[in-house]
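Lab notebook, bench 4. The sequencing result for the construct came back, and we need a structural model before the next group meeting so we can plan mutations. Quick request posted to the team channel:

Model the 3D structure of this chain.
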Amino acid sequence: MGLLHIQVLMMMPVLSDVTGDVLELVVRGDLDRERMDHHDLRIVAGSGGDLVDSDPGSSLSVHVVVQDLNDNPPVFERQRYFAVVRAEDPRGKEVARVRAIDKDEGQNAKVTYSLNRRQSSEEGGKLFGVEEETGIIRLNRR
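Done. Here's the predicted structure in token form:
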């Protein structure tokens, strides 16, 4: 068997190793879906010097899809939200709406809302409720 030269043409840094009939590509470093969600590689094999002009049958195109990790915390649109509640406001009245965005994708980007009862006074914790899916804060009672 003659010497086999392999060249990997791509944008992402990899280490390559040929063992028998298997080419193993190992990514050096992290892939971040938020920066680049896919990579296209062209692997060219040949026995000569200039692999770029090799026989098209000696190349392989590989499409790598980077899956999302839950690596981004949700970020609220504002640092503080203010609301005015009057004594005569009815129970269930919407008093505020909070919104957060998560840069992740799919289920990892899903944001749900809740009130931290441990950081609220007992009275304040019972006075308001938040809709888990929408972030709408409502008056629980008068």
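Residues 5-65 form one domain.
Will bring this to the meeting.
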